[in-house]
Amino acid sequence: MTLYELDPELPWSYIRGFQPVSLCDWPGHISCVLFFGGCNLRCPTCHNSKIAWNPIELPPIPSEKIFSFLQKRKSWLDGIVLTGGEPSQVPKLGSLISELKTVGLPIKFDTNGLEPEMVKTFICSELIDIVAVDIKGPWSKYPDLTGGKCSEERARISLSYLLELAQDWPEYFYFRTTWVPKLSQPDIEEIRSYLPQKQTLHLQDYVPPEKHSKTNSMLDFQVIPPKTETNPTMVQDEGY
């Protein structure tokens, strides 16, 4: 198997999937989606585990192809979504976003919220237009929900920081939770209690990982069949 290393000096090398058109990754927007390899969590319910945990098995998408697509299609796109994996783990990500901003499209940033200072920096620098924060569950359940990669304390401190920012800048934030089997209705209500008054918790349906195994195994092909909200489609090295 050919392996494609991630280069910390080249943030573009972390892009391991590209979806030319999505109607659900940014509600109310027609967007394209960049998938960044790597993640700092190991959630047992991850729906995109190959790109999150084994990105070196996927070839990077050349920046030239992405910019060529954006220049040709930006007139009918409403924005660009940055997701993963976990994009906050990409070194020098700010420089990549600055390059994307030259296209003139709004940018949505998907994150697990564990790098809150990065989010604040991107907002203050006007690099992103909205951030979607995935709240995995009540703080006490984070160790179990993240495969032991995030403590209750870190979840509480990091996400509380973002929740405070959302109180001051509500227009920049979108909070969501995937209702996995380990979450109960009282858990959902507890998560809702964390949010500022003007924010809504958006719930996503859970799809078991085994139903995604076929999708993950097909990432070496050029096109993956159409997506649902919780099952991302990715295009690998297509001519666009």
Description:
This protein is α/β, with parallel strands linked by helices and 240 residues long. The chain has a single domain (13-217), classed as TIM Barrel (Alpha-Beta Barrel), CATH 3.20.20.70. The protein has 8 helices and 7 strands, in the order E-E-H-H-E-H-E-H-E-H-H-E-H-E-H. Strands 1-2-3-4-5-6-7 form a 7-stranded mixed β-sheet, with helices on one face. Strand 4, helix 4 (116-124) and strand 5 (130-134) form a beta-alpha-beta unit. The protein is globular, with a radius of gyration of 17 Å. It starts with 14 loop residues before the first strand and ends in a 23-residue tail after the last helix. 36% of the residues are buried. Mean pLDDT is 88; it is low at 212-239.
